[in-house]
Amino acid sequence: MNRTETEFTPIDSDLYAKAFHLLDPTPAAPSAPSPVSLILAAGPVHRAGPVEKTLTDALAFLDTHGWAKGRLIHPEGARCSIGALRAAAGARTAAYRDAGKLLLDEARRQHGAQWKAIPAWNDAHTGPQVRSVWEAAIQRAHHANI
Q: Other CB atoms closer than 10 Å to residue 97's CB: what's the count?
């Protein structure tokens, strides 16, 4: 029986590690998620219902043009709450009526059941009090998906 010599040349272990690193580099850090995966992970996009949109548009109108007391439209363009609703709705639609009902309901929740109409409530309160009612009404419309 012949015996085969199995002597190997010693290898530098650092060189060996470098060679393997070149052949199989460590995985790079994960890349940022793609926009599509972010959209899919975020879930469905909320679409405002007609009442929420009317309320949101009316509050944006007040933010842009100003809020008024004692009159529907101030000469400089500011409006009271009902005037802002009319501007946002464009017409007395179902969304306009439902937005008004929700706004008045929220005004009663925050300031008492004695308020019979939006103009009277609007004129009896401060800007921050009125804004608080608007924001709460928008949140209620959002959660009710109306």
A: 14
- 83, 68 contact by CB (below 8 A): yes
SS (H, E, C) 18-66: HHHHHHCCCCCCCCCCCHHHHHHHHCCCCCCCHHHHHHHHHHHHHHHHC
Most confident of 4-8, 40-44, 85-89: 85-89
Q: Which of 74, 89, 90, 76 is nearest to 122 (CA)?
A: 74
Give the C-alpha separation, 125 to 131, whole Å: 10
Angle between helices 50-65 and 94-111 (to 10 degrees): 70
Residue 16 CB burial class (10 angstroms; 0-12, 13-18, ≥19): exposed
Rank 1-10, 12-21, 84-93 by mean pLDDT and report only the highest.
84-93
Per-residue pLDDT, averaged over 1-15, amounts to 54
Over residues 125-144, the mean pLDDT reads 97
